[in-house]
């Protein structure tokens, strides 16, 4: 096997200009509910470029571009993923509802379904990603239609938020493609 | 929906002592091929506790426990995921072969299959995770049976290594459970 070189990979990807276009995006908006770390936000941008989701909504005190630390971790995916900042979760969620999206929290709740049960009918979806310590806020949970969780088999309670987001969004892509 | 509280989540998890046992682990060993960042290694430990994989093999200059920075990012998952350090990829891969494992690189190659094509028959598996910049080494690729890649739809070439690992390992769990 031969590792692809930079030019071969680039030939399989969109240009930055193409990637930034509104057409053909995956019908998911990630709503970042008071995430603390710029590195997590940057990583979520990078993953969101790979998944080519519709947009990232940053909410409350979630750091948002332009911020050098975000752009560095995002490898400039802030140029290819549309984003918008909202002061409150209610405003961000109302915006997604007006687009006909189902609102789903990535959180352990008494009613969470496994991400492996997501199906084609669950899109378009707004996926709420919670704070590193406190998770998805009560306000956001009260406004959500559904919650999903990632099955966990060890002793720790959760994954890093940027990893959990990656696992969930690529499972969404797989689920919708079947 | 009600977010689970700490005690409710703990009741669904293994204790650290239970989680560290050899029985009932997911039949996958993650081989870290000269990863640079302690934070990525720590995050991979945390994810590996959640997936309860067999072990992590750190190779070459990959930082390995005990290291304060790894343990902090891992949230002490270094206590629940068995690990072993190898000087060379050849030794790490030979160890996995002796356990009857298929050797698979998570890398973009001319022969890579999508992670969404992984099936039950692909386990037990040793999954080689490459360096942040240079990817899986030529040496490891030459010794691998197979390569998998994560479908990418935007402009960036790849995901962060700890995110990519999380996406791949949870796709392995889903694939083997169907």
Number of domains of chain A: 1
The number of E-state strands of chain A comes to 7
In the sheet with the most strands of chain A, the strands line up as 3-2-1-6-4-7-5
Please provide the ordered H/E string of secondary-structure elements of chain A: HHEHEHEHEEEHEH
Number of helices of chain A: 7
Report the end-to-end length of chain A measured between terminal Cα atoms: 28 Å
Largest interface: A-B, 65 and 65 residues
Q: What characteristic shape of chain A results from the CA principal axes? A: globular
Low-confidence stretches of chain A: none
Binned strand content of chain A: 15-25%
- Main beta sheet of chain A, described? 7 strands, parallel
**CATH fold label of chain A:** Alpha/beta knot
Mean pLDDT of chain A: 97
CATH class category name of chain A: Alpha Beta
User: In CATH terms, what is the architecture of chain A?
Assistant: 3-Layer(aba) Sandwich
Structural class of chain A: alpha/beta
Question: What Rg of chain A do the Cα atoms give?
Answer: 16 Å
Helix content of chain A: 25-40%
> What's the CATH superfamily of chain A, by name?
SPOUT methyltransferase, trefoil knot domain
What is the subunit arrangement here? homodimer
Features:
homodimer, 178 residues, alpha/beta, Alpha/beta knot, globular
Question: Overview of this structure, please?
Answer:
The structure is a homodimer of 178-residue chains. Chain A has a single domain (22-177), classed as Alpha/beta knot (3-Layer(aba) Sandwich). Chain A is 35% helix and 20% strand. The first copy, chain A, is built from 7 helices and 7 strands, in the order ααβαβαβαβββαβα.
